[in-house]
Design a protein that fits this description.
heterodimer, A: about 575 residues, alpha/beta, Rossmann fold, 3 domains, six-stranded parallel sheet, 24 helices, 20 strands, about 40% helix, B: about 180 residues, alpha+beta, Alpha-Beta Plaits, 2 domains, five-stranded antiparallel sheet, 6 helices, about 40% strand, elongated, amino-acid biosynthesis (chain B), Acetolactate synthase small subunit (chain B)
Chain lengths: ~575, ~180
């Protein structure tokens, strides 16, 4: 009892006010929110905060990226692998605008992130001052919330709110813009964590009746199909999810961001849905009688043509964001709420089942996909290396324990299709926005957040060069990420579309690339290039065994295609195998 | 029925916050929806603002937009209503040459019949104000335009609903 009292008193004493500058308050807010790493780039309007960071460098590690976009993606990688809020910082004007791509990416992929930008002095606002830009206006459509601070006294409340909003409910990015005078201004600082915002209900109430109705529908289903998304990972509902599908025996497929919530090898895991997903779950989406969507949003890359998407099925949608209900697919039963709580409540209402005959259909279609696609991807008889072979080798060398951070394009689809995911939060990729250049900086953030995990970045030769300057960050910070570039000297996915839908007119997709190995070595990163199958295994092993960062370029076949494929506007069941 | 274009009046209760207008209008802009009229004002609850937005869209679009508006952190609640569910008014002002008031007898009749109010008169011009439904204002405009209008302006729609909107209860629910 006495002990508790002392602790209570202690918490009280830290809430005592102290007179400090706005910029010191920024650091104290970050510390109070448990931030120990942030990614950023200094500049005029944010200099007072950097000056304070200098004093607090033993408590907060600032990672100087080579471009502000890199800072956002690093913060995203950090958030995605840890579940914590990623933080990045930039100056006003171009520093702030360079954050926008990463912010938009975090918004569409529901990644908790707090971005801090410096702003010109408040007396200059609106005057087109040097490096002034209306970043609050610019970032409005791509942030969950944003705010400009013009007085130091606003700092504690805005920061507390920012972290609360970024992380709660459906997570997302928040931007705080602080004028330079507010950074200098002194005030009486006191920090209290935010416990709620009057107009904001992060998690909607779960209606017990809809939960019961959902259970009844699931119990009576003959051919049910689960499609899960990142919601399962964001609410850390992996165990509850596994219990639900294992009890009900329902074949379960994932969206790109849902990958790794349960292991790839789980017998109920029937693969990925969507444009380059697996054959069986796509085809059988149009044969199931009940479609159970959990923490996903029916993106067009998942559904193909909506007019012919699962029209025969009753649709149940477990979702935290009410705006997603009926947005794309009309649901029969919406179960609002947090996935973890909803699935926990659902479990006792479900009957045990195995759906053996229905599972057989998935197995039969898998055989077709294996013969037509997978076999040739993994065990090619042709000379050129395939992207999938590289993934297979990475799986072997990392025993499926690695976090795979992929960029955007063909290699991304291959990585998602073929990577073994034994652990959750292992597939870090730009799903909704499709941001080329995401992977390298995201891998930096992921590795720093989870130093004990193997982090393998996989990019194409195109996307890699969009943020290649972050090799400098890896070099300076000694981040032991493994960098794999699958080089086909093409912007492969666009080239594939040109081949299939634009009569092979390869407009601006061929790339003349530099000596990637030399570039990596320029940053003192061990590097190797592989062009032949016989050298692949040893090279991947060398990379994984390497203590520090490692760069591996694999020259893959120039005109390889990713199949299966649902052409734009086609139905999921019209998925092409060749 | 959900796919027939109708006129909706959207009432959005919000925290009074700089930038929120931008956030809300962006939702319409993304979908290429033209805002017919927009009005912001304090509401019946202290510290809570109210947006009244008029748009022509389908009900299925309306529902999606309602969700996306409510999703904004500082939006408390968004409602939408059709014409028959609300009582609404718009207001307008005309600036007209004063000589016409005396030379054109017809103008005096128009003013009388339309229930418009003369706000001010001086040697050069007089100002006419009229509140009412959109059609009434349009009619008055047509009638006066024959004589020449120096300036004309019309306000956004303001509306109250016939049914109760339980915004106060909702605010209490948010509090814990």
């Amino acid at each position: 009892m006495k002990e508790t009292q002392t602790i209570q008193n202690k918490t009280k004493s830290t809430a005592i006010t102290e007179r400090i500058s706005g910029s010191e308050a920024v650091i104290k807010c970050l510390l109070a929110e448990g931030v120990d790493i942030l990614y950023g780039y200094p500049g005029g309007a944010i200099m007072p905060v950097y000056d304070e960071l200098y004093k607090y460098q033993d408590k907060i590690h600032h990672v100087l990226t080579r471009h502000e976009q890199g800072a956002t993606h690093s913060a995203q990688g950090y958030a995605r692998i840890s579940g914590k809020v990623g933080v990045c910082m930039a100056t006003s004007g171009p520093g702030a605008t360079n954050l926008i791509t990463g912010i938009a990416d975090a918004q569409i992929d529901s990644t908790p992130m707090v971005c801090i930008t410096g702003q010109v002095g408040s007396h200059l606002l609106g005057s087109d001052a040097f490096q002034e830009t209306d970043i609050v206006g610019i970032s409005t459509p791509v942030t969950k919330w944003n705010c400009q601070i013009t007085k130091a006294s606003q700092i504690p409340e805005v920061f507390a709110k920012a972290f609360y909003i970024a992380k709660s409910g459906r997570p997302g990015p928040v931007l705080i813009d602080i004028t330079k005078d507010a950074q200098f201004e002194e005030f009486d600082f006191k920090y209290e964590k935010c416990k709620g915002v009057r107009s904001y209900k992060p998690v909607p109430d779960t209606d017990e009746n809809s939960l019961k109705a959902a259970a009844e529908l699931i119990n009576n289903a003959k051919q049910p199909l689960v499609v899960w998304g990142q919601g399962v990972i964001l609410s850390e509902a992996e165990e509850e999810f596994k219990a639900v599908i294992e009890k009900s025996g329902i074949p379960s497929a994932w969206t790109i961001l849902g990958a790794s919530a349960i292991p790839s090898t789980h017998p109920l895991n029937v693969g990925m849905v969507g444009m380059h997903g697996n054959y069986a779950p796509n085809v059988l989406t149009n044969q199931c009688d009940v479609l159970i969507a959990i923490g996903m949003r029916f993106d067009d890359r998942v559904t193909g043509n909506l007019e012919s998407y699962a029209k025969q099925a009753k649709v149940i949608h477990f979702e935290i964001d009410p705006a997603e209900i009926d947005k794309n697919v009309k649901t029969d039963i919406a179960v609002l709420g947090d996935a973890k709580a909803s699935l926990k409540a659902l479990l006792p209402l479900l009957n045990a089942n195995s759906h053996t005959d229905w599972h057989q259909k998935f197995k039969d279609l898998y055989k077709i996909e294996y013969e037509k696609v997978i076999k040739n991807d993994l065990h090619p008889t042709k000379e050129g290396l395939t992207m999938a072979e590289v993934l297979k080798e990475i799986n072997i060398q990392t025993k499926g324990e690695a976090a795979i951070v992929s960029d955007v394009g063909q290699h991304q689809m291959i990585a998602c299709r073929y990577a073994d995911f034994n652990k959750t939060k292992s597939n870090i990729t730009s799903g909704g926005l499709g941001t080329m250049g995401f992977a390298l900086p995201a891998a930096i953030g992921a590795k720093m957040a989870a130093p004990d995990r193997e982090v393998v970045m996989i990019a194409g030769d195109g996307g890699y060069q969009m943020t290649i300057q972050e090799l400098g960050t890896i070099f300076q910070q000694k981040v032991p990420v493994k960098i794999v570039v699958l080089n086909n000297e093409f912007l492969g996915m666009v080239r594939q579309w040109q081949q299939l839908f634009f009569d092979k007119r390869y407009a601006s997709t061929e790339m003349t690339n530099p000596d990637f190995v030399a570039i990596a070595k320029g940053y003192s990163i061990e590097a190797k290039k592989v062009s032949e199958r016989k050298d692949l295994k040893a090279a991947v092993k060398e990379m994984i065994d390497c203590e520090g960062p490692y760069f591996l370029e694999v020259r893959v076949e120039k005109e390889g295609n990713v199949f299966p494929m649902i052409p734009t506007g086609a139905s999921v069941s019209d998925i092409r195998l060749e | 029925m959900e796919n027939e274009i109708k006129q909706f009046t959207v009432s959005v209760y919000t925290e009074n916050n700089i930038g929120l207008l931008n956030r809300i209008s962006a939702i319409f802009q993304r979908r290429h929806i033209n805002i017919e009229s927009l009005n912001t004002s304090p509401s019946e609850i202290e510290g809570v603002s109210r947006f009244t937005i008029v748009i022509n869209i389908t009900e299925s679009q309306m529902k999606k937009i309602q969700g996306q508006i409510e999703k904004q952190v500082e939006v408390i609640k968004a409602y939408y209503h059709t014409e028959d569910e609300i009582i609404y008014q718009e207001s307008c002002m005309f600036k007209i040459k004063s000589e016409l008031l005396f030379e054109e007898r017809q103008i005096q009749n128009i003013i009388k019949e339309s229930n418009a109010k003369i706000v001010t008169v001086n040697k050069e011009f007089f100002v006419l104000e009229k509140s009412g439904r959109k059609e009434e204002i349009e009619l008055l405009y047509r009638e006066l335009s024959v004589f020449g209008i120096m300036q004309f302006t019309r306000s956004g729609r303001v509306a109250v609903t016939k049914e109760e909107m339980k915004i106060s209860t909702m605010l209490q629910a948010f509090q814990h």
